[in-house]
Amino acid sequence: MRERRRCGWVGPDPLYRVYHDEEWGVAVHDDRRLFEMLVLEGAQAGLSWLTILRKREGYRRAFAGFVPRRVGAFGERDVRRLLADPGIVRHEGKIRAAVQNARALLALQAAGESLDEVVWAVVGGRPRRNRWRTLPEVPAKTAESDALSRALRQRGFAFVGPTVCYAFMQAVGVVNDHMVDCFRYREV
């Protein structure tokens, strides 16, 4: 049986393949799930995505299933607990940003907005379908990720620079950055 063609960044690790084949680039419109991916993409900054995938269950446990109301209630004792948790990346700035982002999301919702609306507004509500043929063509950030970064920071979110935002946009399907010869390109 012939192997399906995947994006060049996908290595042989089965966890990576499942993530690529089933999740990456699929449109997400649920605020809790968007919050989870925003936290994970922020945690990934400077690290490999495979590192984060391997710690994902640890993150789900440590961050109360990414329920914004619960994470937003975290205090200093929780931050100290998270800094000692080997199941996650123990970076104080990233941990504090996750708590701040939960609070920002709750404030956003209390004001009658949703994270879904803010995220998808940068592409007019429809996924941007790129046509990359090689990995070097894929940008680290775009005008849309700059706009999303600004929109989130204006609403009190942290650790949401344009590069983190672009990786987040790729992950949650705001942009389809599967290579055109990847079997998932047409599927998503």
Description of the structure:
There is one protein chain. The chain is mainly α. The protein has helices at residues 14-22, 31-44, 49-62, 68-72, 76-83, 92-110, 115-121, 143-154, 162-171; strands spanning 128-129, 175-176. Helix 8 packs across helix 9 (162-171). A two-stranded parallel ribbon has the order 1-2. The protein has a single domain (14-176), classed as Orthogonal Bundle (Endonuclease III, domain 1). The chain is globular and about 50 Å long. It has nine helices and two strands. 52% of the residues lie in helices and 2% in strands. The longest helix has 19 residues, at 92-110.
Give a quick precis of the structure.
This protein has 188 residues and is an all-alpha fold.
Structural class: mainly alpha
- Highest-level CATH class: Mainly Alpha
Q: What is the average per-residue confidence, as pLDDT, rounded to a whole number?
A: 97
Element-level helix/strand string: HHHHHHHEHHE
Low-pLDDT parts are none
Features:
Endonuclease III, domain 1, 9 helices, 2% strand, mainly alpha, globular, 2 strands
Which SSEs are present, and which pair or pack?
Layout: H1 14-22, H2 31-44, H3 49-62, H4 68-72, H5 76-83, H6 92-110, H7 115-121, E1 128-129, H8 143-154, H9 162-171, E2 175-176
Parallel strand pairs: 1-2
Helix pairs in contact: 2-3, 2-6, 2-9, 8-9
